[in-house]
Design brief:
This protein has four helices and five strands. The protein is of the alpha+beta class.
């Protein structure tokens, strides 16, 4: 079962079809500094899935810290993360109006509502 303070996040964005191979290759070799930043600011169990028929990327992660807004700002302020985002943002199309890229005031990825969760019975 998830720790009581764990926040689960699911987000979506469109992947430009012509960028699919490059995007997947980049994520096979994520920069160590990017992974370090995520770890430092309490992001765990992060995955991104691709659904080609809709050109959809689906990201899931857990936040285990105590100040989500502060940690998200710190991630956004990290220079290596900003460089990574600039490269990846060019391969994506946001669902959000008025957005200019990751780490800005308007979110680049769109949060989606969790409608069901089953974590099993740890006593079985």
């Amino acid at each position: 079962m998830s720790a009581p303070h764990t926040k689960r996040i699911c987000q979506i964005i469109k992947l430009k079809p012509e960028c699919a191979d490059e995007y997947k290759e980049a994520h096979r070799n994520v920069w160590p500094g990017v992974l370090s930043t995520l770890r430092r600011y309490h992001i765990v169990d992060y995955s991104i899935n691709h659904y080609p028929p809709l050109n959809l990327l689906i990201a899931n992660f857990k936040y285990t810290g105590s100040d989500f807004e502060k940690d998200m700002k710190a991630i956004g302020d990290d220079e290596e993360m900003q460089r990574w985002w600039r490269l990846k943002d060019s391969m994506q199309e946001s669902f959000n109006d008025g957005v200019s890229g990751s780490g800005k005031e308007i979110p680049w990825w769109t949060d989606i509502e969790e409608v069901f969760r089953f974590e099993g019975d740890s006593s079985a």
